[in-house]
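Supplementary Methods. Inverse-folding protocol.

Structures were first reduced to a discrete structure-token string of length 599. This string, shown here, constituted the complete conditioning input.
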């Protein structure tokens, strides 16, 4: 459904945002949603309001049946069938609709975690890699939530180091079944699942995936973990003791299970970032309403500048994350639509086209999860003592936010992926990064020009200039670091992480700017707030980038060489600051008037 007609949205190459410039009409934004998609978003938001929020206490207390019951109610509305093809009982929706569902359902960390694991990492391996028989057998059950799905990769001694799993599978002498032995740890939905996608090494060597039904003898579920947050979700160890799995339940090919494990994480990361956006929008609503109601020194605290700054900085990061998320899914849908025109869809081709945006998915995971941590922290701060006690939801939101920086690849691992993936593409010639770096180096060796770049008169011209500066800063730092460390760059983790931070700023600021320009052209009432948030983001991005790049340069050289490079950095990162105080007030006052996120 919702097949876009002749859409101007460009399915740009993954990571190309660092090198190419886009026009507003070429990127997808939430303002471009069609009527069907708006309806889907509204239905999901209503479900969140009328079903999820009233169940919070029962869910968080793990009352038996509540989580599974809520998942099934969500399934009744088709929410768990979004990414499942129609021939297997699914709805085969476009990825934008699927993103909207995750976004607008995400008002409670526990439910988002359970729902996200079910529709993403637990269902997609089967959609992409399952045999016809496996899909016929299991997908209708997962789409309808008759069975909840679970994905078991991590073990006690191997989380980030996922290739190092110890769970073993051995083929029987008659070749009809595998015997699995091992223990998985931290498995979401473990206590409520009917089907587990489990990763094990055949003969201790060949990394492979298996579909295991709950009732299989030899499979047992351990006790629920006592976690910092997301108390309502199920997280347990899974023990496999001489667990016999029919050969028909091997998923994909022997020795290729790591492709399944890692490819599915791209979507997992993207959806996690999207869930953080929904969570942050909800938290920000609480922040604004509380600030209006709470009085101190004879007036609502919403009138204090520093409270307004909490509202505006939360809204600004949320706006950046939201702009990146919908831009990314717009590219994915544009790419899938292109392919659908060329030939019939194959599930593996869908997966490949999503994998193209691996770097954008990791960016969204890191940026989104850190954004949610900031917003929930500012919510606690806004509520003072009331933010710190269980009686109010801020305390739970603050605790729940933390897990997002750990699972689906920790943010440390994802930062390594962001820089590593781009550098790999650059070295293989898939992305003309090296050419762009060389062009920049030639440019900076020229005598300084006092031409401001010619964008001043355009809408958000200052912000466009700052974006150009952040991009150049990123390319300059990547050039210096790759020249200094060559292929050894991957071992310089601090440098890799700093580069990832600058790259994230580029994608965030550019997505925000293009959206703000689109809003300005449409004359929508939210255009003013979007422009002010883009202004705030521009200053934040360039300051952050400059600081990170200074560290990179100092790690790459010293003496005269360092001094020369710092001088180049000063030239490249030159910018005129905006009126951050005025912009903060504009954003906060719009949010306070609307009593919500102002876009
Ligand atoms: C509530 C919850 C639910 C989960 N759900 C699932 C699930 O459904 N399925 C599943 O398979 N797993 C799940 N996990 C596991 C989760 O994915 C892992 O906890 C995570 O990947 C980190 O692995 P670890 O805990 O072993 O930490 P480690 O890998 O030991 O990491 C410890 C620290 O070292 C850092 N680190 C590790 N390696 C590097 C490196 N190369 N460079 C720099 N820093 C590094 C990490 O970033 C981290 O800060 C869940 C975990 C939790 C807590």
């Amino acid at each position: 459904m919702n097949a876009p007609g002749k859409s101007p949205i460009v399915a740009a190459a993954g990571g190309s945002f660092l090198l190419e410039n886009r026009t507003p009409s070429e990127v997808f934004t939430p303002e471009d949603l069609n009527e069907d998609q708006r309806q889907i978003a509204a239905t999901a938001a209503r479900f969140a309001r009328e079903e999820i929020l009233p169940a919070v206490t029962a869910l968080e207390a793990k009352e038996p049946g509540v989580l599974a019951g809520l998942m099934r109610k969500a399934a009744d509305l088709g929410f768990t069938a979004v990414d499942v093809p129609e021939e297997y009982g699914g709805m085969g929706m476009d990825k934008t609709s699927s993103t909207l569902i995750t976004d607008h359902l995400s008002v409670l960390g526990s439910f988002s975690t359970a729902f996200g694991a079910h529709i993403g990492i637990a269902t997609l391996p089967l959609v992409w890699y399952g045999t016809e028989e496996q899909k016929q057998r299991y997908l209708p059950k997962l789409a309808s939530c008759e069975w909840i799905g679970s994905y078991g990769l991590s073990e006690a001694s191997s989380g980030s180091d996922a290739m190092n799993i110890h769970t073993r599978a051995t083929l029987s002498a008659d070749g009809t079944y595998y015997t699995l032995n091992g223990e998985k740890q931290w498995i979401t939905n473990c206590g409520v699942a009917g089907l587990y996608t489990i990763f094990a090494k055949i003969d201790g060597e060949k990394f492979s995936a298996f579909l295991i039904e709950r009732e299989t003898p030899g499979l047992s579920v351990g006790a629920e973990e006592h976690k910092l947050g997301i108390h309502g979700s199920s997280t347990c160890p899974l023990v496999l003791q001489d667990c016999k799995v029919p050969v028909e339940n091997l998923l994909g090919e022997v020795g290729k299970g790591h492709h399944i494990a890692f490819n599915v994480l791209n979507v997992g990361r993207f959806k996690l970032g999207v869930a953080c956006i929904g969570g942050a929008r909800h938290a920000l609503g609480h922040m604004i309403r509380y600030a209006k109601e709470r009085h101190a020194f004879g007036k609502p605290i919403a009138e204090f500048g520093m409270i307004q700054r909490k509202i505006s900085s939360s809204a600004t990061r949320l706006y950046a994350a939201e702009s990146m998320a919908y831009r990314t899914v717009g590219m994915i849908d544009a790419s899938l639509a292109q392919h659908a025109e060329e030939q019939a869809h194959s599930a593996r081709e869908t997966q490949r086209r999503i994998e193209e945006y691996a770097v954008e998915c990791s960016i969204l995971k890191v940026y989104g999860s850190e954004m949610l941590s900031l917003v929930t922290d500012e919510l606690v701060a806004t509520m003072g003592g009331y933010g710190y006690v269980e009686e109010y939801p801020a305390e739970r939101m603050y605790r729940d936010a933390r897990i997002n920086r750990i699972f689906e690849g920790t943010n440390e691992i994802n930062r390594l992926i962001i820089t590593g993936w781009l550098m790999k593409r650059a070295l293989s010639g898939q992305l003309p990064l090296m050419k762009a770096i060389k062009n920049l180096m030639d440019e900076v060796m020229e005598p300084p020009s006092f031409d401001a770049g010619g964008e001043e008169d355009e809408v958000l011209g200052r912000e466009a200039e700052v974006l150009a500066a952040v991009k150049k800063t990123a390319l300059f730092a990547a050039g210096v670091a790759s020249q200094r460390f060559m292929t050894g760059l991957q071992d310089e983790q601090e440098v890799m992480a700093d580069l990832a931070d600058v790259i994230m700023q580029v994608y965030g600021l550019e997505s925000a700017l293009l959206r703000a320009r689109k809003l300005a052209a449409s004359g929508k009432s939210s255009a003013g707030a979007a422009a002010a948030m883009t202004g705030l983001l521009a200053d934040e991005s360039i300051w952050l980038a400059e600081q990170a790049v200074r560290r990179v340069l100092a790690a790459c050289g010293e003496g005269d060489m360092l001094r020369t490079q710092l001088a180049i950095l000063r030239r490249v990162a030159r910018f005129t600051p905006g009126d951050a105080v005025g912009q903060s007030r504009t954003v906060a006052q719009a949010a306070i008037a609307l009593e919500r996120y102002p876009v």
